[in-house]
DNA sequence: GAGCACTGC
């Protein structure tokens, strides 16, 4: 078992863990206590950000862009937009937008603010996310929206003329859409001197964002002002570090300001392992048991990387819980282990989020959901395995993979903060302090580790043609950009001059789908199966429709078998959909067939939206009824870049009855990189060995194999027929027996 | 031979 040290401290006495400031629980410095107040106004006034009202309004008046550095819980998301509202920034027919990276956040914050403003949600204060526009044109002054939906709005109104202020919240998360939004806003402010941009970010990113938005560099080509020094701002004691000239200098407007607001998190003491651990799941469980024995109250949150690890940790904790029950007395505190990951059905997620029953200490084994999307109250201890499962894109092979990687220090800090929401807490990192100091400071922005085809298509649709000259907050690798352009060209979205093609490229950009699926959907008209492809695209846009979650694997497999077809997973989804429709979208039917009604309803929403878009583009989607080949051809029209052929069977194991793995390779090649593909276990074609297939997603597991998910069997002669520019001759699978 | 980080339009 690992023992922990705290920086600057001697080794602890018991269990290797020291809790010097904890027992009295009162060592928190000048923190506002959690006393309940019924008066909303009073509560608002107590939020740290409220003290900075004057400064914020002053800076907004004088600077096009202001970066707000605010720690968690300082109230910026709810209070700052209200300050602007009350200061009259939404007068004159324009409104204030505040973007959020996630839908739930947009809804909950808007609801809260409407309450504080004493108005009906959807009137003066509203929100807008996909499928839900709870705002009233001409009435709504403050709108919370997802950054993705604001990007969509920009397609119709590139200068965002409907708004006087755009607040980009949680910009430090550096999601694809926030980075894209910031790049675009940088261009917008050059043409809209009346527009104000507020960016809320963590301290690490603030300088970078401010430098990026400096208007003096916007028009200048390539040159960046190195003299933008941080000096004391005009507001005296406030932490204003505006990179501005003297008062009244017209340069003020052009230079971004930075304002720091302290949070109201309680201090969290950090501990490190003295020696590295071999298995962080085991160490996390052992550490949990020791903490529990220490008897300090508070729930425990363990950060792991995936479903499997969470379930393993819970299983180990259950064993320990049993042991503790036998040892402890009748009234002893018990532990209640619970898993938490995004794929978990809502009811089980709630268990992890709700307070534990009396006499129980909740121990939640969670993935990254608990770092950003979901907040657990009552957590006093965070045990952090310091790893994360991350999406990475390899531009050489053109494939994305999910890989477990060490987290960044910024991410670790965020996770630690989860222990200090209600009282001072502890964070136990399952690595040595030395190892921790070698972690990268910040997480690599998504922009630099994702496939960019969709992003490039969106930019093209906004009239930005020169990708290489676009100012990115984090420039993506040139190779990834080239790959994106190649893919869009092969799909027909770009012409030979890399300009958005008409009408195809414009139509693709219009659809809320990744480019490959958009291409399939638009090609479906040609094959007379628009209805079917809309269904398939919708099913691919949602979480798995199969009701996952705990020990029902067999039942799911049996249910799945009822709908599966030789054509593959996508046609299987089609069968599921048709059967669900025939049942009258019956919830009971869905339950009997191990399907999630909630996910199916969401798919129905998306399907409806896709059909609406097709009609708006002047295409009436028709159904091909039983022509499965037409459906598969339309699928191929979008996914041909992911066509693979069977190479043979590889025998890696020494077991006599081991049947080997059917190995596939990309028809178009992988740029000299060796890539071994196989069908993922979840596929209905797993036991089958179609000689050629297209897949929708692939992920690289720890085995080194790229595993293809959502596969569709195709005929080799379809490729040159459907994508003649990519496949000139009839491509047949090479007859090649096993590999090594 | 057994599995799916997380968002978003």
Structure overview:
Its EC number is 3.6.4.13. Keywords: ATP-binding, Helicase, Hydrolase, Nucleotide-binding. InterPro entries: DEAD-box_helicase_OB_fold, DNA/RNA_helicase_DEAH_CS, HA2_WH, Helicase-assoc_dom, Helicase_ATP-bd, Helicase_C-like, P-loop_NTPase. Belongs to the DEAD box helicase family. DEAH subfamily. It catalyses: ATP + H2O = ADP + phosphate + H(+). This protein is 36% helix and 18% strand. The chain is an alpha/beta fold and 740 residues long. It folds into 4 domains: 4-27 and 267-444, P-loop containing nucleotide triphosphate hydrolases (Rossmann fold, 3-Layer(aba) Sandwich), CATH 3.40.50; 40-219 and 229-261, Rossmann fold (3-Layer(aba) Sandwich), CATH 3.40.50; 451-497, Arc Repressor Mutant, subunit A (Orthogonal Bundle); 634-722, no CATH class. It has an 8-stranded mixed sheet, with helices on both faces. Helix 16 packs across helix 18 (504-510). The protein is globular and about 70 Å long. The protein binds one DNA strand of 9 nucleotides through residues 101-103, 129-130, 146-149, 151-152, 173, 175-177, 305-308, 341-343, 367-369, 371-373, 388-391, 402, 404, 446, 454, 458, 511-513, 541, 543-544, 548, 553, 609, 653, 658-661, 680-682, 686, 699, 701, 707, 709.
